[in-house]
Amino acid sequence: MLHCIKVILLWDDIATTGASLEEAARLLKEGGAEKVVGLVLASNAPMASVSNLD
Predict the structure, then answer these.
(1) Which of 14, 38, 48, 49 has the fewest Cβ atoms within 10 Å of its own Cβ atom?
(2) Rounded to an integer, what distance in angstroms lies between the CA atom of residue 46 and that of residue 34?
């Protein structure tokens, strides 16, 4: 049986609070993603906010 690892990369140009990334990650995980990785070009959000997508 083939096992597929479902890793999703979220790309956002600007994150201010990280709330959008967190919500998107939550929905993707509910939909079957095993891991969600966020990539942000610019942010003024605290690192703990945007790095806690798992």
Answers:
(1) 48
(2) 24
